[in-house]
Design goal:
Elements (H helix, E strand, L loop, with lengths): L22 H13 L5 E7 L2 E7 L3 E4 L1 H8 L3 H13 L3 E5 L4 E5 L2 H13 L10 E3 L3 E4 L3 E3 L1 H11 L3 H15 L1 H7 L3 H11 L13 H7 L5
Antiparallel strand pairs: 1-2, 3-5, 4-5, 6-7, 7-8
Helix pairs in contact: 1-3, 2-3, 5-8, 6-7
């Protein structure tokens, strides 16, 4: 099974665990967490000259000592001994078959709760960013990026009108395309400031006919 580009759930308190004091044991344990399925899956497993389909539940993974030794860069006997140790510590459970073994992470329920909370958590405060990208800048709406200091300064200067400018800039970028917008406006912070300086009245009073050319007159290109 190939390892995807996702992440493995590791609690910070691992540094206080019995596993932490043993570097080789820690390596095997982290490997187990990386290999662990985060959702139910079916795996095509080669057995002899053919293949079988093995159902693997969330919190489990198919284990082969020699494959593990290859990935962990340690002797197969060392992998076996450390897997035995982890099982005795109550970290995992192994169900062995003549053709394969399935490992179950014993605390999968706790990991599942942690993963669920982090995947479904949503910021509901008005104006709060919903994603982070472009270094330390945070994403507001779909396309507008500001760092925390920029957002704070704009909030003070523009007061309750900041959301209007973010909404307007977001719609403008959506119409002309991100690539073209990045060419014209390298700083969303300065773009909003320039719009504010050139705007003689609140944006809500400005007629919005969806014409990008009219919006472009408000902006000053920042290169």
């Amino acid at each position: 099974m190939e390892i995807d580009d996702g992440f493995a759930p590791i609690f910070r308190k691992i540094i206080k665990s019995d596993v932490w004091v043993n570097p080789e044991l820690l390596k095997v344990w982290i490997w187990c967490l990386i290999r662990m399925n985060q959702k139910d899956n079916k795996v095509n497993l080669k057995v002899g000259k053919g293949y079988i389909v093995v159902p693997v539940k969330a919190g489990q993974f198919i284990y082969g000592r020699h494959k593990a030794a290859e990935e962990l860069l340690m002797p197969a006997s060392s992998v076996r001994n450390r897997m035995d140790k982890l099982e005795k510590m109550g970290k995992l459970d192994r169900k062995q078959d003549n053709q394969y073994s399935i490992v179950t992470i014993c605390n999968w329920v706790k990991y599942k709760e942690w993963l669920g909370n982090n995947r479904t958590a949503k910021r509901t405060t008005k104006g709060q960013p919903k994603d982070t990208n472009k270094g330390n800048k945070e994403l507001y709406k779909d396309y507008v990026y500001l760092d925390k200091e920029e957002y704070s300064k704009l909030s003070i200067k523009l007061s309750n009108r900041l959301d209007e400018y973010i909404e307007r800039l977001n719609g403008y970028i959506g119409q002309i395309g991100v690539k073209e917008a990045n060419r014209r406006y390298s700083s969303h912070y300065h773009t909003i400031l320039n719009w504010h300086r050139k705007d003689p009245k609140p944006l809500k009073e400005t007629k919005d006919n969806g014409d990008c050319a009219e919006l472009d007159k408000l902006g000053t290109e920042v290169n």
